[in-house]
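Researcher: I'm preparing a figure for a lab meeting and need a structural model of a single chain. I don't have an experimental structure, so a prediction will have to do for now. The sequence is pasted below. Please return the structure as tokens so I can convert it later.
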Amino acid sequence: MTHVIKSLLLIFLLVFNAGAFADPIVPVPEQIPGTKRVDAEAVIEVAGKLKNLVIVDSRIPDDRKIGYIEHSISLPDAKTNCKSLAKIIPGKSTPVLFYCNGVKCGRSVVATKIALKCGYKNIYWFRGGFEEWKSKEYPFLHE
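Model: Understood. Here is the structure written out token by token.
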């Protein structure tokens, strides 16, 4: 009897707590209205032109261990709000670029939409994210 109860308890915990450990499922659109979608080459171009560009890595800290774009600031989507953005972006018209793992990652979508709601006006969205950056063999750093 004890074995059956333990098995049922384990099944209950797995079923009802699975969502606590999973990444949020956010559909990744082709475009986010109010932003400029860029690819890896455009990231390099924009970073070269806009010296005050703030690059925000919307991934969780463990993802940064795999690698991250140089000069990016870690601000996971779950911690993104108007107050946290104001700490890293000097003004509402400061250029800011958001990225995450790639086209299947919705973290940058969430963060970008929050930035729009907070009134940021000069937003770039790197839809291909770190996956595209790495596949094109552009340099990146490790934590």
